Amino acid sequence: QKEVEQNSGPLSVPEGAIASLNCTYSDRGSQSFFWYRQYSGKSPELIMSIYSNGDKEDGRFTAQLNKASQYVSLLIRDSQPSDSATYLCAVKRQGAQKLVFGQGTRLTINP
Amino acid sequence: ETGVTQSPTHLIKTRGQQVTLRCSSQSGHNTVSWYQQALGQGPQFIFQYYREEENGRGNFPPRFSGLQFPNYSSELNVNALELDDSALYLCASSSPTEGGAPEQFFGPGTRLTVL
Q: Can you tell me the distance from the alpha carbon of B105 to that of B93, in angstroms, rounded to the nearest whole number?
């Protein structure tokens, strides 16, 4: 079992709809959770971090965390073609140095 | 823009050669982490440097080594290059924060091709 699992996609969503990206993790010691966006040929860009159970909203983005179910998700409202990218989920244990990444979900927003 | 810079942007080497990649951290950040990202995969942690010392290492062989300098910039050295070392090498800078996990901000990366 991979430490962090994401559906590789591609996930295709019409413009203006809600895109829902999911991530599960196996290490119950994970305390910090991050979503990165990576455009083709570019490096990952941090878009959200979440540390507590529940929802965290930032503009059109909402991160959701459920530690009991070992599940973290990212919702993108009013999806735009510029949101088309690969979204990487990353988790981190308390006190650990490394981020553990999933393989990413490729998201395509169709005009 | 994160303020993290890396050089060179692209590099082509042949098998068996050695390579040095460089990273300058974001202003105020004293910790540098290196990751390797193969095509279609998520980044894999190589190691982290804090206060010029290695502060954690992933599952990479000893031919991957690094340095951190007093100004917090860092180098990644790879000896005896293998074809599988072809990847995007990412540097991330961070700074310890009280009560929370330091977020890591990535530089633009160095694309290494080993022929």
A: 5
Q: What is the pLDDT of residue A26?
A: 95
Q: Of the candidates B50, B55, B90, which has its C-beta nearest A43's C-beta?
A: B90
DSSP-derived pairing of the beta strands A54-58 and A45-50:
unpaired
In Å, what is the CA distance from B31 to each residue of A57, B76, B105? 28, 14, 11
Q: What is the pLDDT of residue B100?
A: 55
Which of B2, B42, B58 is the closest to A104 by Cβ?
Answer: B42
Chain A residues contacting B, CB < 8 Å? 4, 31-32, 34, 36, 42-46, 49, 51, 88, 90, 92, 94, 96-104
Band (A8; pLDDT cuts 50, 70, 90) = confident
pLDDT over threshold 70, residue A29: yes
Partners of A62 in the beta sheet?
A: A57, A75
How would residue A9 be classed by pLDDT, with cut points 50, 70 and 90?
confident
* Alpha-carbon span B115 to B112, nearest angstrom: 10
Q: Which amino acid is at A78?
A: D
Give the mean pLDDT of B39-67.
95
User: How many angstroms separate the CA atoms of A102 and B90, rounded?
Assistant: 16
Mean pLDDT of all residues in A77-98: 94
